[in-house]
Design brief:
With 486 residues, the chain is of the alpha+beta class. It folds into 2 domains: 166 residues, no CATH class; 272 residues, monomeric porin ompg (Porin, Beta Barrel), CATH 2.40.160. The chain is built from 8 helices and 12 strands. The protein has a 12-stranded antiparallel beta barrel. A hairpin with a 4-residue loop joins strand 10 and strand 11. Helix 2 runs parallel beside helix 5. The protein is globular.
Length: 486
Amino acid sequence: MKRLSAYLIFFLVMLSPMRAQQADSLFVYNDSSRMIKRPWRSAFQTAGLNVGVWAFDRFAMNQDYAKISLHSIGNNISNGFVWDNDKFSTNLFAHPYHGNLYFNAARSNGLTFWESVPYSFAGSLMWEMCAEVEPPAINDFLATSIGGVALGEVTHRLSSLVLDDSKRGSSRFFREFLGTLICPSRGINRLITGDAWKVRHQYYKYHDYEKLPVKFSAAIGDRYLADDNNLFKGSNSPYVEFNVVYGDPLKETTNSPYDYFSFNSTFNISGNQPLIGSVNLTAKLLGKHLEPVPGHKLLVGLFQHFDFYDSESVLKGSKKIPFKISEAAAFGLGMIYQFPSKNKRVTIKQSSFLNLVLLGGSLTDYYNVIDRNYNMGSGYSIKSNTSVDFMKYGYFELNLQHYRIFTWKGYEKKDFGNINPLYLNAQGDKGNVQLTVINPKMEINLDSKCKIGVGLYYYLRNTHYIYHLDISSQTFETRLSFRYSF
């Protein structure tokens, strides 16, 4: 009997590392042969991306701004940066999205988060100086470089959720297609290396859900946007919303950048509103976990933020635009505090953030040059999120966001008649703006996966102009939704 017990103990001891080894062999990042860093390939692809986009603009689209020469490049270098006049969505969303391609050219070639950051800056600088005859734009450089890092790491990690090298056939094709749609640079690299079709039975998973849990949900609903704050004067439009909570901010797993982030995006399906209605991102760069009182959980750290709210006139013929708000490049201190769950039925969580905004934007009442009807500038933002989770019944949430953006470089004393608008070099109307978004919302559980919800968004703007009359405006929208959690 003693000998049998000894054999049993020996067997269990030997089995334990075998199980660990089998678990380790599931994930790609445990395979040293596939974790090789390729900085030169990353640089070549970053430059190649710019050349490819420029060639398409120049030869397929025949765009005047793409007809570059050594003379135009020399002019850009000698004249330096200006503030440009592109559309709100172009400057403060499309450029950050472009920057994500530079970032992921490096990230998908084995480089870490911090090692990939310089590629976003280098790709943006190359484009601004060399790929257009128009003067380089400082706002494009900031939005593309810093906003590109934010969207880049999010898309890199989201693509990892769908990739699985053990799959075959239609399932594999769909996963590769979706992964490329989420993160194009990574999809292209997988085609180049052949990873897109190689089938593996070891090191085939790209995400560990036990280490980094992910909550993903999609909602469809109707939003009523008021025209100039009128209760019975507005328009309804259907929308879809995607929400991802990646990682557990209060669980000490790893402390790598973006091991926790909250990402939300809203798309308008029809109507006269922009396709991309809003994008909101809060991501942990580094943090410290504490337990100030037994049972209480606290995370304090440095966070990166990206916010984008866009709208157009609610009614045809109306000149009133409800809001345009951007926080394209922002960092700050934050804390996430969770109170002990009361009888495991109610969980209360409070998040607070104070940020430095390097580049932000807001709707203006006066400046209207080329495609721009908004001011740009820098400043700060304060955010608060209070959530009460009633577990099996539903939850209530209150979001408060306050932005203070200062427009330092105006145009008012310049001679419009003798200045090329491309070289006007103005952030907009000199002054500052206070923007506040108040968003209470509630969802009720129909079952473990389905919820119905209602939400209110209240937008307030107070703009102080140095050379014009001050303007205050406010409006609101309501939302009804059906949400499904995956």
